[in-house]
TrEMBL record:
Record's cofactor remark: Binds 1 zinc ion per subunit.
Name used for this protein in its record: Methylthioribulose-1-phosphate dehydratase
EC number: 4.2.1.109
Cofactor: Zn(2+)
Enzyme class per UniProt: lyase
Taxonomic source organism: Saccharothrix xinjiangensis
Taxonomic classification: Bacteria, Bacillati, Actinomycetota, Actinomycetes, Pseudonocardiales
Binding site for Zn(2+): H92, H94
Pathway stated in the Swiss-Prot or TrEMBL entry: Amino-acid biosynthesis; L-methionine biosynthesis via salvage pathway; L-methionine from S-methyl-5-thio-alpha-D-ribose 1-phosphate: step 2/6
GO MF term list: methylthioribulose 1-phosphate dehydratase activity
Length: 197
């Protein structure tokens, strides 16, 4: 499967889950490590209707020499995440639970004692996972700095307040499973009162 085919198929899956409403969200895969180059989804299109042609090659700063296609407005953050974490794929969606969780716990969202943590690469018990939260903004350099400041190699996710969630992994498949588990974990955390957790 080409990067374009894989990214379009993955976007269709997330869109069907209601996580890419109104053209929101963007996905990328690393196609070269040195220098870093990524295939990223184009900007502004309905992510549930992408074709394999709707991806752009960008450098670590999100810049492209493609004369036609416009890369995601958030391509530079994908580049920063891939560079810092070593991930092979980065996914960003606008699911609601991550944003509600970031709103309630702006200093970081704590997760513990839940079986689904295993799907996020952590232990179900005796392990506390804190998902970092950074303020939203339109400057990807500022967002990237905030991400890097709170980066921990064992937490492959970032919540952007009043915006959405980024998750990464070795490939799109691992990133998907981490995202699906994290969304479940955050939904549980916002819906169950702290006295019951
Ligand atoms: C509903 S607009 C959302 C955008 O501003 C942005 O946050 C987003 O996720 C998609 O941007 P895009 O440039 O299409 O990749
Ligand atoms: Zn977004």
């Amino acid at each position: 499967m080409t990067p374009g085919e894989a990214l379009a198929a993955e976007c269709a899956r997330y869109a069907a889950m209601g996580w890419m409403r109104g053209t929101s969200g963007n996905l990328s895969v690393v196609v070269d490590r040195d220098p870093l180059r990524l295939a990223v989804t184009v900007s502004g299109k309905d992510k549930g209707e992408l074709t394999p042609d709707d991806v752009v090659l960008v450098d670590a700063g999100g810049n492209t020499d493609d004369p036609v296609r416009v890369p995601s407005a958030e391509a530079a953050l994908h580049g920063r995440i891939a560079a810092v974490s070593g991930a092979g794929a980065v996914v960003h969606v606008h699911a609601l639970a991550p944003v509600v969780a970031a709103e309630r716990w702006p200093g970081g969202v704590e997760l513990r004692d839940l079986e689904m943590l295993k799907g996020f690469g952590r232990r179900a018990h005796d392990d506390v996972v804190v998902i970092p939260v950074v303020p939203n903004g339109q400057d990807m350099g500022v967002l990237g700095d905030a991400f890097e400041e709170g980066f921990r190699p064992d937490v492959p996710a970032l919540l952007v307040a009043r915006h959405g969630v980024y998750v990464w992994g070795d490939d799109l498949y691992q990133a998907r499973h981490r995202l699906e588990c994290l969304e479940w974990l955050l939904r549980f955390t916002v819906e169950v009162p702290s006295s019951r957790r």
